[in-house]
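Data availability (excerpt). The following record was deposited with the supplementary files.
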Amino acid sequence: MVKKMSDQQLSSSQEKTDFISLPDSFFTQAVPKIQDLAELKIALYVAYLILRKQEHPYFVTYKELLSHKLIATMGEETLRQALDSAVEHGALLHSTLNINRVLEDVYSLTVDSRQSPAINIFALYEQNIGIITQLIAEELKEADKLYPPQWIEEAFKEAVTLNKRSWRYIARILERWASEGKDSGEYRRRIKKIDPDKYIKGRYGHLVQR
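Predicted structure:
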């Protein structure tokens, strides 16, 4: 005898199931290098958190990871080791961003399956700033993974318009958009009040040509 499903059971069976899609390279290049369960667990969980986001920027901070119970149970030492290994093996990308005036560790996927082919950030740099050094190349690669192509292109245009042709200046524009919201208008209102030297001081200040 076939029993009819109750309305509650039918509703439950029809609930939407969300799926995430990881790029092939994650399985063909990164996963074979992963050496332990903790590393695999954190790589998959970071991917899960990032791919569930509805808008850019597509990354998670270390603080965000600690706020999740499943991850917090690993302990900070284990978490740090797992993250470092995942970065070393190419499963994740690590960067340090100035978010709300605080330097934070952020993690993103080395390949984002939702992005269209990225704008050629290297071409933009060569056309608008000059020769790419090895150190700058690494910075460009990280920015290419963290920010949407349109942001990168607009940040270059902003810097060129203001005659501030340096990667450090452009990076700070992107960091500000990530922390304050690109379309909030706050950046536009404050840009004239900001000391230009503020954008060329810091870790890579010695690379900037004025």
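Summary of structural features: Residues 10-14, 113-118, 185-196, 206-210 have pLDDT under 50 and may be disordered.
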